[in-house]
């Protein structure tokens, strides 16, 4: 078996500064990001032989052959593609598989790209979206009209009952990431907030308030990956993918495990094992934060704290700059941007932190970064460990 | 009933479930090899994948495992309660809880199944409070 650790590197990244892109088709936004990431790497479209995208969901512009549509729009004919869509963490999963493709010679320069424009997109969610599809497994749940937020509410409520987690501890997640966003000129929301502000904001789906929820922005980003050897001579210092893991588990609410274990408990250990490091060695983390409960469960499943201890872990300030695990240094989905599947931004901000280019708060001399995402409602998970 | 407007696409596997629901009975599946129950219904047993599960009538009794009150959702209307309910048979189902004030919702609340007729083809199971045994 090939040891994948360190065989591939991220050579270029780009995050669109846009948060509102009225009437911009998401493919046009992707093209801006792809060109930006290639320029960051010192490469051009002519160098690209691999394309990864998951652009067939709502407000992403593509349909069921999204990666083909996107290749055509860009004007390339890639010989390696991946359009696996497991939700928000798809781009982390695609980065791991791109590393394998690069290590085995299937591809040399792979672009992973994402954009969505939910703020103006005129079409409604397609009826085959798993969270509105009332056939097969969904026929026993969709008629009850669960909302995405209410499913996170099921997790949050049970976490409170099992472990004594408080609304104040949940709110602290939003407060912390807003502190980071305050330093990021591109972040959607930058005005500092308090725990009381979160608790006073309108209840959306109990126990989650409006400020427990991510922002809804347009936006996009792209990542360029290539081999360790080729990355060495490019414009920016390479960031090596040293650990990777992914897992999928469920879509239906009835299948939520009693103890709230998520697929991160599978993706995380695989990533740490490949990298040969432990959670305590991570200098900076980007952990998908669709809602305040989202990163809390990930912190437990990834081993940064024990089962049920994430509330105290957050309240103790561990996620702040200067804490044991500075997290979501750009402000995350709760404050910076969230077009719908923000996993790619966890990769981009990890690379910026390792280069010392963080737009928000910057962890000094960060050497080892963790990018982690989930898909759907803790349905899937993907974890990448990156090193300079 | 608010915001319960998407009828299920019934199929060969699920037909007995929906037929029983129209008669006010709540069916779950049992593995013929292991005797273990499963939810949601499938054409195969998740405990013995080559076995075909059999339908059995559930007690309809259970308790509230966790819930979320939807105050602002995809559709206008009154708040409603999405919930996971642990049935006496040991499986967990997703449904609505009705007839309980938000302040009185708590894990462990004893519940029993009830049915809402959506249309001629569909009666939808929901859960309401019951007196503890």
Give an overview of the whole structure.
The complex is a heterodimer of chains A (388) and B (133). With 388 residues, chain A is of the alpha/beta class. Chain A has helices at 26-41, 66-74, 90-103, 148-163, 167-181, 195-200, 228-232, 264-275, 293-301, 310-315, 332-335, 343-355, and strands at 8-15, 50-53, 80-82, 109-116, 203-205, 208-209, 219-227, 239-248, 284-287, 368-375, 380-387. Chain A has a single domain (8-122, 214-387), classed as Peroxisomal Thiolase, Chain A, domain 1. With 133 residues, chain B is mostly beta strands. Chain B has one helix spanning 15-22, and strands spanning 27-30, 37-38, 54-57, 61-70, 80-87, 92-97, 110-119, 122-129. In chain B, the strands form 2 sheets. Chain B has a 5-stranded antiparallel beta sheet, with helices on one face. In chain B, strand 1 (27-30) and strand 2 (37-38) form a beta hairpin. The longest helix of chain B has 8 residues, at 15-22. The A-B interface holds A 132, 134-137, 139-147, 149-158, 161, 202-208, 252-256, 258 and B 3-11, 14, 39-41, 65-75, 80, 82-84, 91-96, 102, 107, 118, 122, 124, 126.
Oligomer: heterodimer
Radius of gyration of chain B: 15 Å
Low-confidence stretches of chain B: none
Strand coverage percent of chain A: 15-25%
Shape designation of chain B: globular
> In the CATH hierarchy, what is the architecture of chain B at level 2?
Beta Barrel
Task: Give the structural class of chain A.
Answer: alpha/beta
By CATH, the topology of chain A is: Peroxisomal Thiolase, Chain A, domain 1
Give the strand line-up of the largest sheet of chain B. Answer: 6-5-4-7-8
What integer is the average pLDDT of chain B?
Answer: 94
Q: Unreliable stretches of chain A, pLDDT < 50, 5 or more residues? A: none
Q: What is the mean predicted local confidence, pLDDT of chain A?
A: 97
Strand order of the largest sheet of chain A: 3-2-4-7-1-8-11-10-9
SSE topology string of chain B:
HEEEEEEEE
Major β-sheet profile of chain A: 9 strands, mixed
How many helical stretches of chain B? 1
């Amino acid at each position: 078996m090939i040891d994948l650790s360190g065989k591939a590197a991220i050579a270029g990244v780009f995050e669109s500064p846009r948060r509102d892109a009225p009437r911009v088709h998401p493919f046009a936004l992707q093209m801006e990001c792809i060109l930006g990431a290639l320029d960051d790497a010192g490469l051009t479209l002519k160098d690209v032989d691999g394309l990864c995208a998951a652009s067939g969901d709502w407000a992403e512009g593509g349909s069921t052959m999204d990666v083909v549509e996107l290749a055509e729009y860009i004007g390339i004919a890639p010989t390696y593609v991946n359009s696996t869509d497991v939700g928000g963490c798809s781009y982390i999963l695609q980065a791991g598989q791109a590393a394998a493709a690069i290590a085995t010679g299937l591809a040399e320069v792979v672009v992973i790209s994402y954009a969505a424009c939910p703020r103006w997109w005129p079409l409604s969610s397609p009826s085959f979206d798993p969270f509105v599809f009332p056939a097969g497994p969904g026929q026993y749940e969709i008629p009850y009209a669960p909302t995405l937020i209410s499913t996170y509410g099921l997790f949050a409520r049970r976490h409170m009952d099992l472990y004594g987690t408080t609304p104040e501890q949940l709110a602290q997640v939003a407060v912390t990431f807003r502190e980071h966003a305050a330093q990021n000129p591109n972040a959607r929301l930058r005005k500092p907030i308090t725990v009381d502000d979160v608790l006073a904001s309108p209840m959306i789906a109990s126990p989650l308030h409006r400020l427990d929820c991510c922002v809804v922005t347009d936006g996009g980003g792209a990542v360029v990956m290539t081999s360790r050897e080729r990355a060495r001579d490019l414009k920016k210092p390479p960031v090596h993918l040293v650990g990777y893991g992914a897992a999928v588990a469920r879509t239906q609410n009835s299948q939520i495990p009693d103890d709230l274990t998520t697929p991160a408990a599978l993706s995380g250990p695989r990533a740490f094992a490949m990298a040969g490091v432990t959670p305590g060695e991570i200098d900076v983390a980007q952990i998908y934060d669709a809602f305040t409960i989202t990163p809390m469960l990930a912190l437990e499943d990834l081993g940064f704290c024990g089962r049920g201890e994430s509330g105290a872990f957050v309240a103790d300030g561990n996620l702040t700059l200067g804490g044991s695990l500075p997290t979501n240094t750009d402000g995350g989905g709760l404050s910076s941007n969230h077009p719908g599947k923000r996993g790619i931004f966890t990769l981009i901000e990890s690379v910026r932190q390792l280069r010392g280019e963080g737009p928000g708060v910057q962890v000094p001399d960060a050497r080892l970064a963790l990018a982690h995402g989930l898909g759907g409602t803790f349905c899937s998970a993907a974890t990448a460990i990156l090193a300079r | 009933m608010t915001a319960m407007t998407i009828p299920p696409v019934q199929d060969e596997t699920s037909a007995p479930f929906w037929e029983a629901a129209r008669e006010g009975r709540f069916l779950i599946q049992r593995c013929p090899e292991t005797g273990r129950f499963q939810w949601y219904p499938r054409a195969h047993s998740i405990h013995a994948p080559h076995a075909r599960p059999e339908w059995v009538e559930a007690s309809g009794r259970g308790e509230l495992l966790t819930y979320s009150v939807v105050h602002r959702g995809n559709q206008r209307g009154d708040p409603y309660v999405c919930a996971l309910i642990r049935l006496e048979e040991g499986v967990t189902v997703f449904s609505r809880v009705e007839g309980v004030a938000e302040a009185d919702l708590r894990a462990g609340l004893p519940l029993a199944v009830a049915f809402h007729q959506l249309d001629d083809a569909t009666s939808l199971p929901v859960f309401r409070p019951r007196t503890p045994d």
